[in-house]
Design brief:
Largest sheet of chain A: none
Structural class of chain A: mainly alpha
Strand order of the largest sheet of chain B: 2-1-10-5-6
Order of helices and strands of chain B: HHHHHHEEHEEHEEHEEEE
Structural class of chain B: alpha+beta
Oligomer: heterodimer
Helix content of chain B: 25-40%
Strand content of chain B: 5-15%
Number of strands of chain A: 0
Number of helices of chain A: 5
Chain lengths: 141, 408
């Protein structure tokens, strides 16, 4: 048996043991907790596979049809950066603060910051896209 | 891969596409490539490994018994928990790009008729389902928890731990399954060229693919950039010099006396007049001594700079003044190396009674603190007196102390 094959078998076995350890903690939980856990486990998969991913693919296809090619690269950069920031900030932007009397928690103007980031990014995409189209046009002359 | 052949050597297996779904071949982006998937996937694995190690350290550090030695290094818990939340935040763009790069495989054809290939295919898809479900679960619950948003009805700590094991275990299994592809992906250099349409386009979707907006190398750089941005935008909760750039951190790092608060007196069910007639009782084997705040103030005071660090990833350095716990133990004839039960006046929450191992009780820096940054403690910081020990989880830095008792 090659050493790579041995390593793969070892990793696979180790992975299964760790999965089993996690599952054994979960099965001891009361039914209402398990239902809630199942909803969150399935919900994450559905949110990605049936929402985030198809919307990204469809958005990309739409952008290709509607926008001049020079705008595509800055748009991709903007979507990846702002999309990351938005997804990671969902709790502070749209969540419910369950410790509302704690003045030291969620003590920043998140929505304002996010709107400013969106606006600045949108302007940047337009400016960079225009510069790129002009450069492309000039090089064709 | 086995192919069922008929007598004429033709493939008669009829792998079937999933009805009503796109085909794997319908996705044409040439940015989806092994060189991208292998690199982003590897760093995603690193992020989850860091989160698992730091998470396990905290999980057992909070329980009564740890199977590994705890440390009294003052910065250790600040470091592990800051890293835990930073790794989880960094994993957000890594997971999104990783999943994007392999999304078409969700629609791969199902091996048919049933064969060993079908069984392996289903088993592998099941392991990936566990991976995606648990990985997304960990990031979603972790990010919601640090913002004190609990839209679920399970215990966060034990569930986040258990599903963390599912995520890490299925990642390790996935690495084992995909190792040849991972090695191949790393062996090739990601292309710096921007893919253009084929000159002689045919009929298949791939042959008619339009130009790509950027190269694979650029997509990778963009992913690292997004990872850095996510960290910079949030890490100010624990990295002081990032405070001013972390616009999306759950805490600015400010608070009364310059230190944030995790659980307020109101949330802990501690009344505003907890200080009236307050005293702390120290017990050891039938011996008992009660100290009022004036008694404590009359004792020799120690001052130490110790960070307070929360499991939620925020931390702050502060200067604490009070009576070393070991001096209080000595007052009732208890050895400094005593395991302690610490009781608080708090009536709500899981940490009204906590355990302090002798390792911490005997440390001269472990204080029954009366003052914070030169001022008297505020009610939300644990007035009249709180425990502060080096390198312990914030939930065990018990506030509003009413008694310290040695355990037999």
């Amino acid at each position: 048996m090659s050493s790579v094959r041995a390593l793969r078998l070892l990793l696979a076995a180790g992975g299964l043991v760790v999965i089993g350890a996690g599952a054994s903690v979960l099965v001891g939980k009361p039914l209402p907790s398990l239902v809630s856990i199942a909803i969150f486990l399935a919900g994450g998969v559905i949110a990605h596979d049936a929402l985030i991913a198809p919307v990204t693919v469809a958005g990309g296809a739409a952008a290709r049809r509607l926008l001049p090619p020079a705008y595509l690269a800055p748009l991709v950069v903007a979507v990846v950066l702002v999309g990351t920031l938005t997804v990671a900030s969902i709790p502070v932007l749209f969540g419910v603060n369950e410790s509302p009397t704690n003045q030291t928690l969620l003590d920043r103007p998140y929505l304002l910051s996010w709107l400013v980031v969106l606006a600045v990014t949108a302007v940047a995409v337009v400016v960079v896209g225009r510069l790129r189209s002009r450069r492309a046009a000039a090089s064709h002359r | 891969m086995s192919v069922i052949e008929n007598g004429r050597g033709e493939d008669t297996s009829r792998d079937v596409a999933i009805p009503l779904a796109p085909r794997e071949e319908s996705f044409t982006s040439r940015l989806r490539h092994l060189t991208v998937t292998a690199r982003v996937g590897t760093w995603l694995g690193v992020a989850f490994s860091v989160a698992l190690l730091t998470g396990v350290y905290s999980h057992y550090g909070q329980s009564f018994t740890a199977w590994f030695p705890l440390l009294t290094t003052a910065w250790i818990y600040r470091f592990t928990q800051g890293l835990h939340v930073i790794a989880g935040t960094a994993a957000v763009p890594l997971l999104l790009v990783k999943l994007w790069s392999v999304y078409p495989k969700l629609f791969s054809r199902i091996p048919w008729p049933p064969s060993r290939r079908l069984v392996l295919d289903v088993a592998e898809k099941a392991s990936i389902l566990v991976l995606v479900a648990s990985a997304v679960f960990e990031l979603v619950t972790g990010l919601a928890n640090i913002a004190h948003w609990y839209p679920w009805s399970f215990s966060f700590r034990s569930t986040h731990y258990a599903v963390g094991l599912l995520a890490f275990g299925s990642i390790v299994l996935h690495v084992a399954i995909k190792m040849p592809f991972i090695r191949e992906g790393w062996a090739q250099k990601p292309s710096r060229k921007i893919a253009t349409p084929l000159r002689r386009a045919g009929d298949s979707p791939a042959e008619r693919a339009p130009a790509e907006p950027l190269s694979r190398r650029s997509l990778l750089n963009l992913t690292w950039g997004a990872t850095g941005l996510a960290v910079l935008a949030t890490a100010g909760s624990t990295v002081p010099f990032l405070r001013d750039v972390s616009l999306f951190a759950v805490r600015s790092g400010d608070g009364p006396l310059g230190v944030p608060i995790n659980r307020t007196a109101e949330a802990a069910g501690v009344s505003e007049d907890v200080g009236d007639g307050w005293s702390v009782t120290v017990r050891h084997m039938g011996q008992e001594k009660t100290f009022t705040r004036a008694d404590l103030e009359a004792m020799e005071q120690s001052t130490h700079d110790l960070p307070i660090a929360c499991v939620e990833g925020w931390s702050a350095s502060a200067t604490w003044t009070g009576v070393p716990v070991r001096d209080l133990l000595a007052a009732v004839g208890a050895p400094a190396e005593s395991d302690l039960t610490v009781a608080s006046a708090q009536t709500r929450g899981a940490f009204g009674r906590t355990f302090m191992p002798a390792l911490f009780a005997s440390d001269p820096r472990t204080l029954l603190a009366l003052r914070l940054n030169g001022e008297e403690l505020t009610l939300d910081h644990g007035f009249p007196a709180r425990v502060i020990a080096p390198g312990r989880p914030g939930v065990l830095q018990t506030k509003w102390i009413t008694s310290l008792e040695t355990t037999a």
